[in-house]
Amino acid sequence: MRLKALTVVAGLAVATALSGCTSVGLGSFQIFTADYGSRTDAGYRIPPIPITKVPRQYHRQIVSYRTDEAPGTIIVDTGAKFLYFVLPEGRAVRYGIGVGREGFEWSGTARVGAKREWPVWTPPPEMIRRQPQLAKWRNGQPPGPTNALGARALYLFNKGDTGYRLHGTPEWWSIGKAMSSGCVRLLNQDIIDLYNRAQVGAKVIVK
C-alpha cells in the first residue's frame, strides 16, 4: 500500500514537471515559475526573466477564484497587483502586474477592442510633455524587446479606444508596483499567455 502511494506521488511529480509547473500547493493548482526562460517569437528574442527576483505571488499560476463573471472575463485587481483570467469551475489564471502610479490610477469596465502582436508604441502628446525624452518616438517606437508595449498588447475600448492597454513590458522589476501611466503591465511571457487565451470582445473589469 505504501509503495502504491509513493508511485502515485512520483507520477504526479513527473506530470507536474512535464506541464511546466514547479509546484502544486495550497490555494494554487499550478504555478508556472519554469516558464520564464528566453524564447524566440516572430523573429524577436525575448530575454529570460530572473524570476527568483520576482516575488513568488506574482508568478503566473492557476488558482481558486470565485466570481459571477463568465469564463473569459479579465478582472484586474489594482490593489493586490493581480490580473485574473476567469476559467470554468471556480478557477482563474492569475498573473502579477504593474499598475498606474499615483495620479494615474483608474477603474471601470471595458472590452478588448483589438489585439496586436509586437505592437508599435506611440506615446501620447501629454506623455511627451511630461517626459520630453520620448519625443523621438512621437511617430511610433518600432516593435522589439525594448518596446514599451512589449510582445503583445490588448487594447481596451469603451465607446471607443480608452487609451489604456494590457501589455507586456521589458521592465520585469515593475511587476507588483505602481509605476505606469495607467496601463496594466505584464511580463512578456505572461502577456503572450494571456493574449492566446483572451478573445476580442472579452469583458475587462478594473477595480
Description:
It is a single chain. The protein is α+β, with helices and mostly antiparallel strands and 207 residues long. The chain has one domain: L,D-transpeptidase catalytic domain-like (Beta Barrel), CATH 2.40.440.10. It has three helices and 15 strands. The strands form three sheets. The chain has an eleven-stranded mixed sheet, with helices on one face. A two-stranded antiparallel ribbon has the order 3-4. The longest helix has 17 residues, at 2-18. The model is unreliable at 1-26 (pLDDT under 50). Residues 1-19 form the signal peptide.
Keywords:
single chain, 207 residues, alpha+beta, eleven-stranded mixed sheet, two-stranded antiparallel sheet, 34% strand, globular, disordered N terminus
Topology:
Layout: H1 2-18, E1 23-25, E2 28-31, E3 39-41, E4 44-46, E5 61-64, E6 74-77, E7 82-87, E8 91-96, E9 99-100, E10 108-117, H2 125-130, E11 152-157, E12 161-169, E13 178-180, E14 184-187, H3 188-197, E15 203-206
Strand order of the largest sheet: 1-2-5-8-7-6-15-10-11-12-14
CATH topology: L,D-transpeptidase catalytic domain-like
Helix/sheet category: alpha+beta
Mean pLDDT: 87
Please report the distance between the alpha carbons of the first and last residues: 50 Å
Helices and strands, in order, run as HEEEEEEEEEEHEEEEHE
How many E strands? 15
CATH architecture descriptor = Beta Barrel
Total count of domains: 1
Uncertain stretches: 1-26
Taken as a percent bin, the fraction of beta residues is: 25-35%
Largest beta-sheet characterization:
11 strands, mixed
Number of helices: 3
Q: Let me know the CATH homologous superfamily.
A: L,D-transpeptidase catalytic domain-like
The proportion of residues forming helix, as a percent range, comes to 10-25%
Radius of gyration: 18 Å
Q: What top-tier CATH class fits best? A: Mainly Beta
Shape: globular
Active site: 167, 183
Pfam families: YkuD (PF03734)
Keywords: Cell shape, Cell wall biogenesis/degradation, Glycosyltransferase, Hydrolase, Peptidoglycan synthesis, Signal, Transferase
Signal peptide: 1-19
